[in-house]
Model the fold of this input.
Amino acid sequence: MVLFYISIFAGSVLLSAVLTRLVRDLAVHRRWVDPANLGRHLHVKSVPRIGGIALFLGFTAASIIGIAASRFVGNREAMSAHTMLSILLPALLVLLLGLCDDLFSLSPYWKLGIETIAAIWLYAGGLGIHFLGSYFAESKLRIPIGLFATIFWVLLITNAFNLIDGLDGLACGSAFIAAIVVCLISLWGHAPSTSLLATALAGAALGFLRYNFHPATIFLGDSGSLLLGFLLSGLSFAVGSNAGVSVAVAVPIVCLGLPILDVSLSVFRRFLGSKPLFRGDDEHIHHKLIKRGVSHRDAVLILYGVAAGFSVFGLMLVRGKWMFGFAVAAIGLGVWRGVRELKYLEFSELAAAARRVRQRRLVIANDVNLRRAIESIGKAPPDFTEICEILRSTLEPLGFSGVAFSFIEPDTIDPALLFPIPTDANGRLAVIWREIHSSTPDWELRLRLVSPSGKHFGDFVLLREGTAGPLWLDMNLLSGEFRTSVSEILDQAIQALPSGSHTQAGSKSRATPSAARAGVSWD
Done:
């Protein structure tokens, strides 16, 4: 039996290689080529892009040969004509869709509509999601649920392979790896029809890869990439059929992890960036590798390794259910690490937003402290020492190093009356409770002091070191209600100063008791 599948694989490789060469030469002769494009496409010379035709012919021929050979060797259960037609006819529809898109650039909605028809056709032929798994083997899904799940899966995988087809050989090589895994799992699950089709697909992909690897002389085109994705989505329905429900769901997702990851990243980052979901860009995984300086060939080989890694974990899920948790954890860690290395700006901003959400608790706590300070200021006597003590107890926990007051008419206030509040190098009244390492603070926030009558009589300056870390508070509250309350109490404090006393001694005699009562020390 092993020799039978090896023969089918070898024949498929040979047929696909010969047909690919013929299609390529015909396309070049007829000038059915894709011109060089220096945009998001990476090829710099004209190349035929109707490789899907050769791929389909090679796969179909190998499948037919497989049926004939299975009957010749007496294995009539290997595959029936009905099974083959159930997948080949809708696959032909997808091929024609891709060719039309290559020639006329169909809208995404047309493509999704026709792909949906092909998925329904596939489901009607028996290739779809009909059961949840062995834990619910007797519970057949209702048709609407099974049909919807089938359509979703087919659309996801079909378009995922279309999206990763951005480097020579990437989509075709990834399909080859996935087809090999589907073949192995189908053999273990005693599904000979799926095994034979997967073997033929793996051989067709490898034969085509001979001319599609960098530097490619023929492209898959949308006809080829959509075809590969459609065939693999259909064949993957048999994967994990003999496993538990969780494994049955996880195995095909893991085996096709690379295209699923790329399409998921594309949809998510376009959503975050408010970009059209169906508009192409140059931010796919392979594009990011090229931008990081990785060569074309090395980028493809790296992604082959990623696809192979996903496939190995998929095999682990089938052959050792006890390793399910380990495999899922390893995949999650690897995906997280890989996405971080690609440094998508959208995800960096999302991480920053998540950090801001985590710090929201600090914002709430600091805002509560500001509102308590507003209440305390409203009840405090119009005394500069009392005011400064309230400001210190409120602003120091927020990371501020001190405050300074700058009045428009400083000559009307005897500095001695404000003892023990000193003046700084700029002539401002300053209260510093945390050491500032330079004469000029790294960070200042200046708030206007406005009396209840609307008169601007000075500025209230908050001082802060640049190394103090993030400032977690509502700036609107700080510059709104808090500033207003400080303005009112300072206006009252200025009005309460004795205007007729100008001697330093007399001033000290008035200010010192207040300072003593407050027990304030700002040194």
